[in-house]
Write a structure and sequence with these properties.
The protein is an alpha/beta fold and 494 residues long. The protein has 9 helices and 17 strands. One of its GO terms (molecular function) is 3',5'-cyclic-AMP phosphodiesterase activity.
């Protein structure tokens, strides 16, 4: 008998723009919770109520029985107390969604949160919004600031409809034990752990440590912010729980009058089903390690590798914004098929390391500690520098120069983009090592592609080409994983 899925995922917003009604937003729940109150977590909220209303309208009223329970569609089994899709969507946001996780503060990931929050009811308690401290600092100072949008949070005298919950990067060691150590409650039935990743670089036009141009006390996390509510997803008063400028490296320009180049911080959320210990990863926008001046993705794959090997990590939701025609210099902190498969190849190498360790004799393990390469029969791992990667020249004839689109971080590119002297070479595994592995290293892992940039032109959707390129690269790399582009009208069971 097939194993019962542990997760249901509804992708409300599968794309990265320019359409504002389909930008990033996912709903995740444990299938063991049966749509109970607080049993769903929203990951990003570029699209939130609009996506829920769209789905309810598609299946109402024909798919609702006499007891008000949905019988078809992504919300099958959900009891709806009202007649209209709009009223039921508001009920869902207020009662069923237990928290909102934000990967990074770009508008295509938070606009729905801002627009939708006023329908929350203060008497029900504030809705938790959980993210890394730097992400919440940006939301607090530049969105819910009584200028761009009313301060609807419960800090600084706001309306109290939202409460900020600052996650500890890499997990809070005070929570959990064993395999769940570091995970904290996301919603009923689900635990989470957040790791920082890089979404490229930008020019800071004000001091990043203080954001002195506006609301200095908020960005600096004054002592009043230690008083978090008892419902907090993660509370840790050590240095690890606060934003430290040292953790966001900056490139100091040669000309002191030039703005500082800083990492645009994004996140990867591990979500763990409390009942089965199965997991998925949901990434925010990210760039490949091979072009980053602060490679962070490898840390995620190091944690994920043993979980894939053990069969507990079943799905990855990750962006692939453009096809392979786009030059590295015009990816603007995003992935394309060649880079996504290169990242998954690093994950595959971690899986093979776990397999080798489990099958090795004590003597083999001793040799492995003395030799840190991928194996004597694997050949020498290739050292790849960002400046030697394909398409480093933005004037390449094969390259497709794209203008920056809504939600892209970048302003002006530095002249030496991709050629930073401090950039570290990134080790790329030799995939021939596991070409004959049975099973292939990522067999059983489902990779769901989100944040595809829509072209809004005649012809096949851009996702068709991206999917073909991913499959071709993955076959060449002997990965074994399956790629999917989510359909917003169909639930994903993992």
């Amino acid at each position: 008998m097939a194993e019962k899925p542990a997760f249901q995922v509804i992708v409300l917003g599968p794309n990265g723009g320019p359409r504002e009604d389909r930008v990033t937003g996912l709903l995740v729940r444990s299938t063991s919770m049966n749509w109970s109150a607080g049993s769903v977590v929203a990951v990003d909220a570029g699209t939130l109520l609009a996506g829920i209303i769209r789905l309810l309208k598609r299946f109402l009223p024909d798919s609702k029985d006499d007891n008000g329970v949905m019988t078809e569609g992504p919300f099958k089994g959900l009891e709806l107390p009202f007649e209209t899709a709009e009223a039921n969507a508001a009920h869902f946001f207020r009662e069923i969604i237990g928290a909102v996780l934000i990967t990074h503060p770009h508008l295509d990931h938070i606009s729905g949160l801002a627009i939708n929050t006023p329908i929350l009811e203060a008497g029900s308690g504030p809705k938790p919004v959980a993210a890394l401290p730097s992400v919440l600092s940006a939301i607090k100072n530049h969105l819910f600031n009584d200028i761009i949008w009313p301060n609807l949070s419960d800090e600084d005298g706001g309306a109290g409809l939202l409460t900020y919950q600052r996650l500890v990067e890499g997990g809070n060691s005070r929570f959990g034990s064993g395999e769940s150590r570091g995970y904290v409650r996301a919603c009923n039935g689900l635990l989470t752990k957040c790791l920082a990743v890089s979404h490229g670089r930008c020019k800071q036009r004000y001091p990043p440590e203080s954001a002195a141009h506006h609301r200095i006390s908020s960005t600096m996390f004054g002592s009043d912010q230690l008083m978090l509510p008892s419902r907090a997803i993660s509370v840790d008063h050590t240095d690890g729980s606060f934003y430290s400028p040292a953790r966001s490296p900056r490139l100091i320009p040669a000309n002191p009058k030039e703005p500082i180049m800083s990492t645009v911080e994004s996140s990867a959320f591990f979500l763990r089903d409390h009942r089965t210990s199965k997991e998925i990863i949901v990434f925010g926008d990210l760039e490949p390690d091979t072009v980053s001046f602060e490679p962070r993705n490898k840390r995620v794959w190091e944690i994920a590798g043993p979980k894939v090997a053990a069969g507990t990590l079943r799905g990855v939701f990750i962006e692939c914004s453009y096809n392979d025609d786009v030059d590295d210099a015009y990816l603007y902190g995003h992935l394309c098929p060649r880079h996504l498969v290169a990242e998954l190849t690093v994950l595959a190498a971690k899986v093979m390391e776990v397999r080798d360790s489990e099958s090795a004799t004590p003597t083999d393990r001793k040799r492995k500690r003395m030799n840190t390469s991928f194996g004597a029969d694997a050949g020498t791992p290739e050292q790849v520098s960002p400046r030697t990667k394909r398409a480093s020249n933005p004037t390449s004839e094969k390259g497709q120069k794209l203008e920056s689109q809504p939600g892209d971080y970048v302003g002006e590119l530095p002249e030496n983009f991709g050629e930073d002297p401090d950039s570290k070479d990134v080790e790329v595994p030799n995939t021939a090592r596991w070409a004959d592995a049975d099973p292939l290293p990522l067999t059983g892992l489902s990779v769901y592609i989100i944040h595809i940039k829509e072209t809004l032109t005649d012809g096949p959707p851009p996702g068709d080409r991206i999917l073909r390129e991913l499959q071709a690269h993955a076959r060449e790399a002997h990965l074994g994983c399956d790629f999917f582009i989510p359909n917003p009208t169909e639930p994903i069971w993992i």
